[in-house]
Amino acid sequence: MASKPISRYPVPDLKDLPPDMRERILAVQEKSGFVPNVFLALAHRPAEWRAFFAYHDALLEKEGGLTKAEREMIVVATSGANQCQYCVVAHGAILRIRAKNPLVADQVAINYHEADLTPRQKAMLDFALKVARESERVDEVDFAALKGHGFTDDDIWDIAAITSLFALSNRMANFTAMRPNDEFYLMGRVPR
Amino acid sequence: MASKPISRYPVPDLKDLPPDMRERILAVQEKSGFVPNVFLALAHRPAEWRAFFAYHDALLEKEGGLTKAEREMIVVATSGANQCQYCVVAHGAILRIRAKNPLVADQVAINYHEADLTPRQKAMLDFALKVARESERVDEVDFAALKGHGFTDDDIWDIAAITSLFALSNRMANFTAMRPNDEFYLMGRVPR
Amino acid sequence: MASKPISRYPVPDLKDLPPDMRERILAVQEKSGFVPNVFLALAHRPAEWRAFFAYHDALLEKEGGLTKAEREMIVVATSGANQCQYCVVAHGAILRIRAKNPLVADQVAINYHEADLTPRQKAMLDFALKVARESERVDEVDFAALKGHGFTDDDIWDIAAITSLFALSNRMANFTAMRPNDEFYLMGRVPR
Amino acid sequence: MASKPISRYPVPDLKDLPPDMRERILAVQEKSGFVPNVFLALAHRPAEWRAFFAYHDALLEKEGGLTKAEREMIVVATSGANQCQYCVVAHGAILRIRAKNPLVADQVAINYHEADLTPRQKAMLDFALKVARESERVDEVDFAALKGHGFTDDDIWDIAAITSLFALSNRMANFTAMRPNDEFYLMGRVPR
Amino acid sequence: MASKPISRYPVPDLKDLPPDMRERILAVQEKSGFVPNVFLALAHRPAEWRAFFAYHDALLEKEGGLTKAEREMIVVATSGANQCQYCVVAHGAILRIRAKNPLVADQVAINYHEADLTPRQKAMLDFALKVARESERVDEVDFAALKGHGFTDDDIWDIAAITSLFALSNRMANFTAMRPNDEFYLMGRVPR
Amino acid sequence: MASKPISRYPVPDLKDLPPDMRERILAVQEKSGFVPNVFLALAHRPAEWRAFFAYHDALLEKEGGLTKAEREMIVVATSGANQCQYCVVAHGAILRIRAKNPLVADQVAINYHEADLTPRQKAMLDFALKVARESERVDEVDFAALKGHGFTDDDIWDIAAITSLFALSNRMANFTAMRPNDEFYLMGRVPR
User: Fold this and answer.
1) CB pairs under 8 A, 24+ apart, for F55-62?
2) ipTM
3) pLDDT of the residue at B3
4) Chain A adjacent subunits, 3+ CB pairs under 8 A
């Protein structure tokens, strides 16, 4: 399966990339043991690549009120709704690892209402799905419901902003037919 | 109407922003005569602000196969589908100016099938709407149709990437209840 | 742009129309300064034309509990949902004039939830949209909600009947590819 | 069941109606043996009543390229899609009588694709349903398909206009909870 | 009309069927006066036929908290939503007979919200439609609502299971273009 | 996680079940190493249980033109569309094993258009999804497309019937909140 294309578009060689991009990619490879295909497929457009990962890091790597596992739940649930194969498989792996739970990613991808989540986490995903599918109807009632679960205004921004970033990401991955690395499918499913 | 809030979230004062952000905003103000509210509303989160405008410039300001008016058509048509008041009003104004056509923005926002566009432009918007609404179904038939209208692979990437960026932008604007500046409504409707 | 067809169907000359129709059209022209295309495009079928304008006048010209601006809000919001270019552009102009507000028509057409309206007006449009999209689900709860905002039974009939008439009108305009007059786009946007 | 209300709104007594309305209603009663409830329920608003029946007669009673049974097929198919109980039951009865076929109305109301119709009639209903549900997408391809089945431009107008009138009628009947007369359910099902 | 095919697939002769199937079919014919086409159309696959009717009898023929008329209401309402001609026509007939009501089947098929039902029966159909259309969202709130109307847990299972069986049945009937027997259309409409 | 309930309904003890059911369940346990929860959750209703598994075996265990892996693809793709957690997880495991492919189940569940399938298999799933979502529109064009890929009439019945059975099964699993066994998540992902 190694020979399957990872994008409809040409994928640059690591050696041909600008140094900042190559450096980041090598760091990821060092940490993960492989280069997630999103780093290569989007590298077809360096300026967009830099903006995308800057956005990604601003939301998923920073400190904040949502745990890193919760942020990945948002990614997996909304990417499932958008039928994005790359994002569900790749972020499903990250969710399993961050939540230290081998089951939760598949549950959230298929139907978060039946997943092993807290009521607070389900309320978080209710809101994420509303932003993903009918953001024009977000209103003060939604904010009140989330605050009733203890979310702050900044947590709510995080939920909406992560959902919005993956609204972009899901469409780019679907449009390019971005292929998840085989490695992701098993990550976090078996004790290390 | 001047006192209506422009976002559900606090909006920083220009003087409190980091210099790079303030500088960019002052340049826009210089050019446009006012500061579009998106620059202020998103400034609540500087790191995300920087990523957003880097992405925006990479797609909307660069040279490329699509005219600048065509790029705005993509923004207006998909933002209409997402019922994003800020993006339809603000980018509608920009479209009127870039297309030098006072009618086309309202037409595209309501129903691009009946707008004063070329068949090539309608094919471009057919694809943009597909990426906006059901990107999981994009396939080789779509690429062939676009190439039949003379679009290159890189033009097609531009159509999809602009659509994807505004999938993000529409959701952020809707979620924050971002208010379009009053100035946009009339821009490009009367000869200067 | 003057030469663009205003309908897929033949449009009769004013001089060939029956006297009652010609008289009405000349009166409109006298008042507005131009003949709105709906008067000409529908004149292809005189009997239907007479019934349509009789219905129109019975709902939009009479006295009643809804202001004339509110009635136009109903037209613009439901015509936006039905993506009717003629009705959004033409009645958007009338709404701007009747509400003496240059912004409200675009706001209502794109997303009335974020428009500069009163809660009572938003409740009116919630109901109009329900009649437009899923009238089979209208029930006593809807009536109670409207009465809580001070609407009478006859006001509620007006909301539903205006919505219903434009369910007809939007489909006729879309089917005939009825073109809005250029004049409408700017009406009510600049102080006279 | 005689005591069930036929509308959410007050229904005027025949004797209190203006002479022209009373005369028409008595004529219908004479011909049908009963007064269809739509004549009474809509009489709450005389001016709208007159416009409605003028529109109705202009489309359903005139001579034309579509048979009267075909016009009723359009009413029944689109009213089924709009879940309008009054229109499906009442016009289903008329369709059975005009088509001299006791089965076709139920078939068309549930799923016209499987009804005992000609390919030409199914094409007619394909177009009617498109006008009912997504009129903003009607285009030249639709016209060409209908002409391939022998429909003229004026036949096509009739299909669209009947669909549009019942877009109005279905919403009014649903909104007022208009009750079909018991007599309709059995009409045309048994040989006279 | 007798010669219209009752299925896209070959229909076995009664004499060629295994004895258990033939016996059941003859018993139905004895009782009803004709053989409902579902018994013949599904007989193309004997093992599936046996499972289908075993399932059917387990839900529709047993004793239980729902009346037999109520079970048929579930069938008719959900089959209407799935546009299944065979099931609406055939079970509409059975509903008329079991409810001893010549009107209720057409009402339920078109729009149960406006049918002559009790609030308890409407709550039952609200739940059935939710299971038919978005079963992934069934939750404890639904159970509480039904219990508020006096339904037991086992009644609720019956509602969901009948809905589920006809989710299967509607798809099989639609896929095979199964034709309702002419006899069904009139059954239960006239006093015997 | 062992203590999570596997159904909203009481689950019978194996020892309390009728002998035929217990025997079947023990045989499955013997073969799989555990008892899939569907056998226990549905045992709340023995008569329905027997009908369900008879139907299941008639379609999934028999010989036929579709491979056993292909039948599981149908189950996984349609269960994904219906957001059925039990069926996607359990049949995803079976698909991985039958296809000897650790990746294909997740791909098919999320978006079969981008899965590692043959064009013939994608045509099979196009049809299955049409039966799952809009069976009322199945027509001769669908049959012709499938035959162009070499499917026989009996293969097509199999595709539709498996889809229909899981239309039932998905709704029962969703309604009962049926929980997939933890064992399924990892099955078929690692070489034995």
Assistant:
1) F55/E48, F55/E51, F55/E52, F55/E55, F55/F165, F56/F165, F57/E47, F58/E45, F58/E47, F58/E48, F58/E51, F59/E48, F59/F158, F59/F161, F59/F162, F59/F165, F60/F162, F62/E47
2) 0.97
3) 73
4) B, C, E, F
